[in-house]
Amino acid sequence: MKSLLLLISSFATLFGVSALSEAKPHAPLVCSVRPKGHGADDTDQVLAAINKCGHSGTTILEAGTFNITKKMTWDLADSHVDLHGVLSFNPDIQFWLNSSNTYRVVFIQSQASWFVVTGKNFTIDAHNTGGINGNGQPWWSFFATRTRADGDGRPISFTIWRATTALIKNFRITSPPFWCNTVAESRGVVYDGMYCNATNTDPQFAGQNVVPNTDGINTYRSSDVSLLNWDVTCGDDCLAIKGNSTELTIRNITCHGGNGIAFGSLGQYANMSDNVLNVDMQDVRMMRIDSKVQPNMNNGVYFKSWTGTVNGSPPTGGGGGPGFVNNITVKNVLLDRVNAPIHLYQTNGGHSADAPSQLTFGDLKFANWSGTSLTNKIVDIECSPAVGCSGILFEDFNIDGLSGQTPRFICKNVQDLTGLDAPCNATSLI
Ligand SMILES: *[C@@H]1O[C@H](CO)[C@@H](O)[C@H](O)[C@H]1NC(C)=O
Ligand SMILES: *[C@@H]1O[C@H](CO)[C@@H](O)[C@H](O)[C@H]1NC(C)=O
Ligand SMILES: *[C@@H]1O[C@H](CO)[C@@H](O)[C@H](O)[C@H]1NC(C)=O
Ligand SMILES: *[C@@H]1O[C@H](CO)[C@@H](O)[C@H](O)[C@H]1NC(C)=O
Ligand SMILES: *[C@@H]1O[C@H](CO)[C@@H](O)[C@H](O)[C@H]1NC(C)=O
Ligand SMILES: *[C@@H]1O[C@H](CO)[C@@H](O)[C@H](O)[C@H]1NC(C)=O
Ligand SMILES: *[C@@H]1O[C@H](CO)[C@@H](O)[C@H](O)[C@H]1NC(C)=O
Ligand SMILES: *[C@@H]1O[C@H](CO)[C@@H](O)[C@H](O)[C@H]1NC(C)=O
Ligand SMILES: *[C@@H]1O[C@H](CO)[C@@H](O)[C@H](O)[C@H]1NC(C)=O
Ligand SMILES: *[C@@H]1O[C@H](CO)[C@@H](O)[C@H](O)[C@H]1NC(C)=O
Predict the structure, then answer these.
(1) What is the distance in A from the centroid of ligand 7 to the CA of 390?
(2) Which CATH class is domain 26-418?
(3) What CA–CA distance (Å, rounded) separates 407 from 399?
(4) Counting atoms of ligand 1 from 1, which one is nearest the CA of 37?
(5) pTM to 2 decimal places
(6) Tens digits of residue pLDDT in 241-254
(7) What does the sequence similarity comment in the record state about its family (predicted)?
(8) Does the bond joining 265 to the residue before it have cis omega, within 30 degrees of 0?
(9) How many Cβ atoms are within 10 Å of 57's Cβ, its own excluded?
(10) Tens of pLDDT along 108-121?
(11) What percent of the chain has pLDDT over 70?
């Protein structure tokens, strides 16, 4: 024991001394840039600052509007970025739709990115003034009369890819043409204070959802991600938790309009398993807004997998993928007139004759839910007859449906469900 302690202490001394002898004083590395203005292009000066100070330095992007006209990657290590200003992506739709002008680092559905941040141990603080302007209105108007498809090249506004230990703080994304955020193939990323707003202002489209696919975030192949203090106004998923998202901490999320919070879609790739594990979500509000601005407020929280049959291929088709969703808690939820408070289905992209999905959902806990649903279908959990669901737990679940109508609770192929104060209409096929 004594010799072991001696050994440890001599190692400590050794490291202490070597660290001291290697430490040499040097001036802190700081780069500061301000927008050029007058219609000039800021992309090159922003990239030059990041390339110079993005490793072991500080980069300051001053207040104002930076005109970004080309795809950008920021590779950051042991670095701090103060983004006081707004990165405004030039709305040249045909330019960005040319696949050589975006990155395709997000594997799922081959989605495009115009701005990728990668690296380790960095902070991007946008001080509640800075962030991204996606200039989405011309995009939404352009695509209002055209087919939209996954992987068609509409760019994700802000992509974190292959990052470890990162903090994104007080960051605003306005008018995203497509998804606001994606975190992919990353670990230890904290987003704290995120704003995303996709709101059509063209009176021609009042009352229509012309902002589909403006998801707040998609998480994919990432672990240990925190989503804290989000405010999302969109026409699609407020949050979408996709394959191989594990150890997620989600707190204080307000969603205005859209499809609600999604787990999925999952099982699109037959050759890969989509596993979602250990998600702790608390303090969520789903708020319907003026229907002239955004007509949809579809779900509270919903879960979706493709069927067990392969129909076409990704990015638009697919199915048949295995996987599991397990140990999910969704707690302290307030709903304001959503269509479907809780919905689970395993028939995404499928046909009635398809084989049932093999992807399993289990240990889902819904605690302390209140508020209102526009329909009387309060719970609709329809699990695959091939595998079923197990361990569905409700606690303090009080959602009011349409007045005068008996609430309906549907659960198909659910092995054990507890805590609802009315029986669930279970038709177990397994
Ligand atoms: C941004 O730069 C591009 C290319 O130089 C230019 O065409 C465009 O007008 C600029 N945008 C703004 C808002 O200044
Ligand atoms: C992380 O980066 C900061 C500078 O932003 C640096 O002070 C710190 O030592 C780095 N941590 C590690 C573990 O390298
Ligand atoms: C796409 O961009 C590349 C590189 O700038 C260019 O060579 C190509 O002609 C463009 N394609 C189209 C269809 O515009
Ligand atoms: C979103 O943007 C619209 C249009 O600019 C604005 O009217 C609305 O107040 C914004 N929503 C939030 C929650 O900031
Ligand atoms: C919740 O997040 C919003 C920003 O979306 C923030 O203004 C508010 O202070 C947060 N609430 C708490 C209790 O932290
Ligand atoms: C799975 O299939 C997709 C095509 O749908 C392919 O791009 C991918 O590389 C395959 N993944 C593996 C692990 O084989
Ligand atoms: C998810 O992780 C499992 C291994 O844990 C792997 O087999 C599978 O291919 C991954 N799926 C995706 C979509 O990357
Ligand atoms: C379930 O997930 C929570 C975090 O959300 C974690 O603390 C807990 O240990 C997990 N339970 C199991 C059985 O893994
Ligand atoms: C239940 O959720 C509401 C928000 O919807 C919150 O105000 C309340 O404090 C929660 N109750 C408990 C016991 O956590
Ligand atoms: C349960 O299902 C049966 C058969 O589909 C239906 O007749 C009945 O109305 C349902 N009850 C509730 C409470 O939804």
Answers:
(1) 22
(2) mainly beta
(3) 9
(4) 14
(5) 0.93
(6) 999 999 999 999 99
(7) Belongs to the glycosyl hydrolase 28 family.
(8) yes
(9) 19
(10) 999 999 999 999 99
(11) 93
